[in-house]
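Student: Send me a single protein entry containing the residue sequence and its fold in token form, directly below this note:

Tutor:
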Amino acid sequence: MKLKEYGEVERAAGLSRGEVARFGAAILFIAGVIMFTGSQFGSLDRAYLLIAAAVIGAYMAMNIGANDVANNVGPAVGSMAMTLTTAIVIAAVFEAAGALVAGGNVVNTVKSGIIDPNDIGDPSVFVWVMMGALLAAAIWLNVATWLGAPVSTTHAIVGGVMGAGVASSGWAAVQWPVLGAIASSWIISPIAGGLIAAGLLYVLERWVLWKDEPMTAAVRFVPALLALMAWTFTTYLALKGVQNAVKISTPVAMGAGLVAGVITYLITRPRIQRRAPHLTQDRDGVNHLFTVPLIFAAALLSFAHGANDVANAVGPLAGIVEVLVGDGGATQQRVGIPLWVLLIGALGISIGLALFGPKLIRTVGSEITELDRSRAFCVALAAALTVIIASQLGLPISSTHVALGGIFGVGFLREFLEQRMGQVIEDVVHSHRGDSHFAEVERVMWEFKNAPPEEKRRILERLDEMGRDAVITAGQQRRLKKALKRQLVKRTHVTKIISAWVITVPVSAVMGGMFFFMLRGMMLP
């Protein structure tokens, strides 16, 4: 065997060992859940059902960690504000903290009210519905992660509950207005997130990055932007992150956010003034100012995500616990979540993120479009800002779709700006064709071609000042046009992700119905 072939075999074997190790760690977590649940509830008449439900809930939590958490830390990793390992540690800690501290003392047994609990009178049927819904949502999330498509875990569990509910009680059990609101969020969420992220980036480009001295402009503008971030995230956490632990009204949340914003401005402005002389007067220098804010944003988004989305894994499990362990109030509209159930959700999300999350983190952070720290900051800020605005307007929103929409918006804005610049250059070149100073113009054109998008604008301005000396050959014009009109957002990723969004609810619903019938068939005498 040749040395090169031997090396390839070794690399393949290394990858296989890594996959086996991750799978083994997941199995150990599942085994731990089985042993704990069995030791605590082994004396119950239907302990096997509770153990099975706990295993499915743990499996669902791991898939949430593997798929959904990437939206919180992906931009920070893609912009190299922090390493993948650092992102995983931060996200795991804050996801678990959010789930345990503010994961919800009370949740709806039927997520988002998608089915009417009164239509499921038999406690055993209720258990089968919840187990079928959890299993369907978890398997679909697993498939989506394998395909590299970030999807909404809330939509997955909603689809599973809907399908299992229809299978158990018929179409009348479905709350169709709620389902319609969910479908509308497929459009509202990414468009809103994309527009806000693109708007923030355009303002940042125009007021800071396109200036002759970007760092000087950043000293004036970036503290205000960081103050906006502090206001947004404080309000976001008050409304979405700790709402289950402490009830906070919208005016109070916004007031607390305002105080945090003012304090942040007063602290960051002198710090940036002191740091600015030590940074370069270009985009790279400005990007360094967003490193720490991106780390904070990733941590806070992870906390809020853990507080809210842990219910997708353990909400149905809590309903099953209420039926099998409680007083028989099987289909009450609201149930409490025991601490051990929350712990399964928190640990499952963190373990799933650590074992299987890197693939989606890379997809979100670098494979859709190129993100530097200023763009990643706009995406993170837009995600929180969009959720706040939508919640106040009563619009249905998906945080997953908002974050991905923000990345799409940033990428498409870059495309638009580059194409517009290219048209301006073509007009200048056409109007001065045939003039002298060809060598100098050629040098400038090559400089333009190899420059980053923001530097192209400065070269454009210099070319305009050259007047009739700015000429270029037809061949160079074609090459320049090709360079300017390249796609900065990978269309294959856009198509794959949007397709996965659209089919999440229907696929989860079909599988939820199938699993309900399978469970009923196995459980009935």
Remarks:
- The longest helix spans residues 3-41.
- Strands lie at 106-108, 334-336.
- The chain has a mean pLDDT of 79.
- Residues 451 and 459 are 9 Å apart (CA to CA).
